[in-house]
Amino acid sequence: MRTLIMIAAAAENNALGKDNELLWHLPDDFKRFKQLTTGHKIIMGRKTYESFPKPLPNRTHIIITRDKDYFVSFEDVIVVHSLDEALALVKNEIAFIIGGGEIYKLAEKQSDKIELTRVHANFNDADTFFPEIDEDCWMMTKQEFHPTDERHKFSFTYITYERKNNSLKNL
């Protein structure tokens, strides 16, 4: 059975980024992202993929784009043209949705879990946002607070949400 997990770092106002860049630098969150996603398939939009200097190691990248001519010449990078095409490539395994905002919105109803890093700040100039988490569909099952320190300008909380049993994924 497939497990689809949305993973993101989002501000209190659900801001994700601006101009295809993150709005913060949180080394411990990067470590957690790497730990959770390594060895799995990661699904993303084209802009998210292009925000990386190169493909992330030890992960198969599935890029969703409307551009039928889009091509990437790296191993472990697959280009598809819809979320359905991407999901067809992740049967019976764990896969992560890693952004951006439009891809999160498309994938939310298909997802089983959310691994959210809630950055305790607001960024009003952001241009990309994580969808609102519907408490009727999602239940918080775990949280871990991380205070500011010499390497982290903002405090944040790792929050795990799991889909409630009574909410249907394919509404």
From TrEMBL:
GO terms for cellular component: cytosol. Residues 3-163 form the DHFR domain. Gene3D superfamilies: Dihydrofolate Reductase, subunit A. Keywords: NADP, One-carbon metabolism, Oxidoreductase. It catalyses: (6S)-5,6,7,8-tetrahydrofolate + NADP(+) = 7,8-dihydrofolate + NADPH + H(+). GO terms for biological process: dihydrofolate metabolic process; folic acid metabolic process; one-carbon metabolic process; tetrahydrofolate biosynthetic process. Coiled coil: none annotated. InterPro entries: DHFR (IPR012259), DHFR-like_dom_sf (IPR024072), DHFR_dom (IPR001796). CDD domains: DHFR. Key enzyme in folate metabolism. Catalyzes an essential reaction for de novo glycine and purine synthesis, and for DNA precursor synthesis. This is Dihydrofolate reductase.
